[in-house]
Amino acid sequence: MRKVCEVYLISSSAADERGVELTFPVSQYEMMDAFEQIHTKSPGDVYWQVDEFYCFDYLAPHLDESMSIFKFNALTEQLSKLDSYQETALEGLLQMHVNKHMQENNGPITTQELMMLAANVNRCQVLADIHRLAHPDSIEIESDLGLIAVVGRGMKAAKGTAGRIFSALAHARINVKMIDQGSSELNIIIGVSNSDFENAIKAIYDIFVTTQL
User: pTM, whole model, 2 decimals?
Assistant: First the structure.
């Protein structure tokens, strides 16, 4: 596991001002030991700052040191699993994300967004292949999708199947973000927001099984 950075921790409530320096990411036991050394048990009492980056130094302007030290450790743990090629890819993804934030006035990058970007670096090779083969004007990546496959032998050449599916989803006020059907015509795959996933399944089940329209 790669070491990402040196972090200095100090308790904001302790009488003495002695802190402790750790190389992140750290184990749970190392974190608890550091808390004992600075005489605190509450993460809310811990002030921390990055003293030195060993890699991923381009993240420095985007770190919010008011975040929980445990969240920051989780981020560095995810970063530590990336190789040097993925580190470069993450820098590119971060820059695109920063540009998007600036265009939409969305404020600073959050820890959750940084973790999402780190999780998405493997898509960079896929994006490179798409650019090479299709030469698109632009590509947008959308996450947080749930995929539902409606499968059945009776679907092939059956009239109105897709209409029933999308009517049911529209009636349930669910927005369909993706549609795909294989050449076999034995299934239809629908993409919806994760927040709509369970309601979408219920709507499709009701239209085919409960009401059998």
Answer: 0.58
